[in-house]
Amino acid sequence: MTWDKRSDTTVHEQDPYNAEPSRAALVGHMITPADTFYSRNHGPIPAVAPIDWRLRVDGLVDTPLLLSLADLRSGFPEREVVATMQCAGARRADFLPVRDIPGEAPWGPCAISTARWTGVSLGDVLAAAGLRPETAHVSFAAPDVSQVADPPATYGSSIPVDKARSPEVLLAWAMNGEPLARVHGAPVRVVVPGYIGARSVKWVSALTASAAPSDNYFQSTAYRLLPADADPTTSGPGVGFSLGPVALNADILSPDPGTHVSPGATTVRGFAYAGDDRSVVRVDVSTDEGNSWRQATLEQDDGPWAWCLWQIDLELPPGAAHVLARAWDSTGACQPESAAALWNPRGYINNSWAHLDLVVQ
């Protein structure tokens, strides 16, 4: 099933459905259309009728709630945020020349997309339930059952309570001005700007306030960065560390790798994304293996939770061209140079310098 995606979408798996857009589909678009937005799933995509959907709010709260979609839309102020989502496994394919990563989809650089989300503040809903002082985390539950977990289990996740109460975190029912599509979490999903996409739980059915993170497999075991010498098939809960805020990242979207271009001026375009509450402040581009760098022009006008797009005109002589790109964020951090230094058994968080090989003739 295509789930109404573009014909140039790369489908890594049909069941569960995991797909990313082409570089050409992303380039130049600050807002990613729904038919282009990447899709990451861990089990069959559920069908939840909006009229039947309910959200349970429980745990360390004074007033447990059971909300319908109508309750959500009428009982809380509507909010909107432009936010980028990025899969924790984005750019995993660039790890494979270092060492194989069995059982994991070879995501490229396009497991990242940006949308205008509409819904209500998660913090407003939690306030209505009355969070107790001992709350440290808010967990999310969903109805999709994954065979990845052992034994099979529904998907779940959690975030720290301070992030949960931040105004940018939404319970969203619309994407780019249209009701959410089923593949993107209809009728309601969580949107956690600045965090890995795995924390923005789709088809959310329950919120639980607790003193500890969720013990769901996808919080306690799956989305954790393991040491390079760990065995992911035997690593249980608590091994490694939990992934939350997105790491600074950038990549090149145009031209495509291996493209033949004419000598002279070539425009190179890409994206950069800092995650959490950081911003991209500079993108450097090199054509001499990093001996010298030029600064790209940045386009970032969609707010603090969105990626920035960048471009630069390069003068390329005949022959083989090797283009490098790296981003800097508002804390002064720069992307690390080597994918080899970042390799890990699940292939998460490859934010090494971007590379592009071209043929100039």
Helix and strand arrangement:
Blueprint: E1 10-14, E2 17-20, H1 23-26, E3 54-59, E4 65-68, H2 69-75, E5 78-86, E6 112-121, H3 122-129, E7 137-146, E8 153-160, H4 161-164, E9 170-175, E10 178-179, E11 189-191, E12 206-210, H5 217-222, E13 224-225, E14 241-242, E15 249-254, E16 260-261, E17 264-273, E18 280-286, E19 294-295, E20 297-299, E21 308-316, E22 319-329, E23 354-360
Parallel strand pairs: 3-12, 16-23
Antiparallel strand pairs: 1-2, 3-4, 5-6, 6-9, 7-8, 7-12, 9-10, 9-11, 13-14, 15-17, 17-21, 18-19, 18-22, 20-21, 22-23
Short description:
This protein is mainly beta and 361 residues long.
Q: What brief labels describe this structure?
A:
single chain, 361 residues, mainly beta, Sulfite Oxidase, Chain A, domain 2, Immunoglobulin-like, 2 domains, five-stranded antiparallel sheet, 8% helix
Structure overview:
- This protein is mainly beta and 361 residues long.
- It folds into two domains: 10-242, Sulfite Oxidase, Chain A, domain 2 (Alpha-Beta Complex); 249-360, Immunoglobulin-like (Sandwich), CATH 2.60.40.650.
- Helix content is 8%, strand content 37%.
- The chain has five helices and 23 strands.
- It has a five-stranded mixed beta sheet. Strands 5, 6, 9, 10 and 11 form a five-stranded antiparallel beta sheet that branches.
CATH architecture designation of the largest domain: Alpha-Beta Complex
User: What is the number of strand segments?
Assistant: 23
Main beta-sheet annotation: 5 strands, mixed
Provide the low-confidence segments as ranges: none
> How helix-rich are the residues, as a percent range?
under 10%
Strand order of the largest sheet: 4-3-12-7-8
